């Protein structure tokens, strides 16, 4: 009973196996076993199961959003969602009682109706294949073995394929297989959103293509009017009769197969997906039917898919030993499935939950801050495309600022199709079942994240063409917004930014206040000062003709630059007890009785929900959801942070920073996966012995579903990419700056040897290898200029084709 297609030998460090069928864990597996290619992704749902309380199949195309109105808690609200597209997976099977023509079919096999005898999933990261094996028994005790191989093609982003091998273990007889396209789906993947409108697909039509083995489905989204075309070709080596059927919203093809005992029959389903957002097509349905008709057989598809993945793995090799390395590979896999080289051709941003589920409605937050710095050094063209997404929405951000009575660009906290503010007005606390006002849109710091990424991209790539055009335009308008948002406080002799929310979403107002927002969030103000300073640097460095064009077009005058300079030096950073205050007044809030809440509730990550359900509010306490002040240590190297504070007229030495870290660590509940990541980055730098604990938490965030059920609604892309960047930049201290690669490794005894390769300014495959005592850097042969590398006080120039060994300073140990 050897299966016809064998995958390579199971490499434990490259595979994620799941044993047994566990309904309660199904959604988590569906997210972690999702397959995608940057253009679209499909959750790892079982093809024989429809959406219900256990299963949540979903297919999402990057940037494919739709807007619907709903009524909740007596209010009309509008939400834009990443649309769950028609399900291309359905493939179910059932035995027939006898061989005669008038026999009766037994129910379709599903793990919920027939307890599986064996059930296994194996995600093969190297090959990008999800393998599934299940043994079922029908009512007559006849055993059927099912093996499926699934791929979402990394080479041709419009194709996916499902191979099903069916083996009658101890019987011969008839088996029916139904392969379908299902357009009756809705956005029902997140329980909290179910009271909201979720039917995004309309005008669903189906048909059979002239090639009789191909069915098709077309539909459109309700208000964004994106047209979707899907076609599926189903072939088998099992002979037998086939028939197509069309019910409302669903097309299927039925195969009647004759199975011989211990002989394997194969059914292949090849699927093509197009939407009206695609370039170079006439209409999505024609494109899909045409593509699937020309699609090669499964083995050929698998080979070209494998090649495409090989190339990706070579482009961003992260060689970390042990379990950490295995998890990092999974994170890289999901990052590349969400943002791949195909993304470079799309108008999309960084979806916080990947293309893996419906949480946060597929919106784009500030999470790109944790993603782009990694991509810059592997796929700079993808980073550039993601920055272009922001640039195309710069005008919308300027409108938002103007509507708020401000100058410049005010980027939205949550962004979707056109860049308007998509943050929900109300959110549900599932603990109290109350709908509550949502003020998280006051997180104006998202603009600084965009600016930071523009700057980092420029440093990593040296792409002056971008920096002098779109980059400069974004930086200028974001800086302008900050300069205008900063109000001069005569009594304090400082500029202040009032009424915002910082990265810590728990604090959205002062206790008892009538207006939302807090004042002088240290992170917001310090990053605003940084943006202003960088914008000034960039404008000064512009070639004169370009500078003139830009100044004319944006009506920028030198006097405005003088204001920027002043604001960048005199923004207020609040302090209490000699430490940076998260915001003005944080130090006066009540101390939370952490032990009490821990023993009463166990998991207190979502302290906000706990307290609200108790009739209290987290706004009263010195308790943070996630790293806020400490984000400064994530964005800036110690040297740069000291410089930034000095420019603001504050002294921030190592001791103050160390105490600041300790202070907030004790007051953070880590209610976001980004929190442990940022702590994992910051703690090794202040030599805290518990740094590794936070690294482990950051690594386990999704695989162990640490946020209690949220991974089943989509992966946490920022944290996944952030862990990769933790190795790439966090532990190495790698900082591309002014054309030099600066390194400042930090000791983390549990992770002291690793290697990685980067693409840097036209050099492909630059290898870095770090041990506790030395750093080795190898520049592949090419006709490029040598790379300047700085470590401590030493700068060396490494020519192409050479390797350089740099001993680490003793302080590293
Ligand atoms: C975090 C935000 C993050 C968002 C999307 C929230 O829970 O608090 O910082 O941007 O999730 O990942």
From TrEMBL:
Keyword set includes Hydrolase: yes
InterPro entries: 6-hairpin_glycosidase_sf, 6hp_glycosidase-like_sf, Gal_mutarotase_sf_dom, GH65_N, Glyco_hydro_65_C, Glyco_hydro_65_M, Glyco_hydro_65_N, Malt_Pase/Glycosyl_Hdrlase
Ranges of residues in domain Glycoside hydrolase family 65 central catalytic: 329-724
Residue stretches making up the Glycoside hydrolase family 65 N-terminal domain: 18-277
One GO MF term attached to the UniProt entry: hydrolase activity
Keyword Metal-binding on entry: no
Tree of life domain: Bacteria
Keywords from the named record: Glycosidase, Glycosyltransferase, Hydrolase, Transferase
Domain Glycoside hydrolase family 65 C-terminal span(s) in chain numbering: 734-798
Family assignment from sequence similarity: Belongs to the glycosyl hydrolase 65 family.
Protein name: Glycoside hydrolase family 65 protein
